[in-house]
Amino acid sequence: MPETGSFTLTAQEFTKIRTLVYQTCGIDLKHGKEELVKARLSKELRKQNITSFDRYFEQVVADRTGESLINLINALSTNFTHFFRERKHFDYLSHHVAPRWQRRSRIDIWCAAAATGEEPYTLGITLLEALGPKAPLHILASDISTKALSVADAGIYGEAKLADIPAQLKSKYFARGTWKSETAYRAKPELRQLLEFRRINLIEPFSHQRQFQAIFCRNVMIYFDKPTQEKVVQRLSEWLEPGGYLFVGHAESLNGARHSLEFVIPAVYRKPSGAEARGR
Length: 280
Prior knowledge:
Blueprint: H1 11-25, H2 34-47, H3 53-62, H4 67-76, H5 87-97, E1 107-111, H6 118-131, E2 137-143, H7 146-154, E3 156-158, H8 167-173, E4 174-179, E5 182-187, H9 189-192, E6 195-199, E7 212-217, H10 226-238, E8 240-248, E9 262-265, E10 268-270
Parallel strand pairs: 1-2, 1-7, 2-6, 7-8
Antiparallel strand pairs: 3-5, 4-5, 8-10, 9-10
């Protein structure tokens, strides 16, 4: 079995993997990503005692359970995130959006690229602070990576992960403990109970029981090409209620993309309140 770094990824193998990933989840692995693909998938080859990327690709395609394909996507997915990332969004949500929801009997938020959970937990903290502990919140946290979602569902994070959370909020919403012989913090039940975790591939058909007042889909569309971005934004828009908000990453301006949303502030868009509501 080859040692670390000794696998060879040919141009043909990279093209096959790139095409499969694009067709599966819309991620565009542009040329220049060969070393990244090689490094991350080499671990899968060693784990499964496979000697070449060609054989690995054949096994993934032949696996009718889909588990091998999910493992491939898990390996290639980038799940970098942290609490209160792009803090201006949470400030805007707290001061300008949440007050409009004070009298609602139910508030539905969708975090469509939840990664390892820091973003949806931040949403929960922000809205509980803005609306109070009895706010009727429900936060759907989805991601394509089952590996990332398992971390998010556990809600356990090391000290460094909570560095961006003010001390008062950290003690209010996280319990200090020991996991796997290391000191860590776990989201308290009153925060965890707000979240529902679900695997969703944004380029595959998906449905929900109701529309959302806000959707966060940040720092994932940068991996899509323009046609895929437009398709995803259109489908997300269908699940926004009229007047609902779409938050995207600050590096993900929708300029040049066709959509029906109104610009609010950088990286925040709103569905016109007079738009026909669909998807109920």
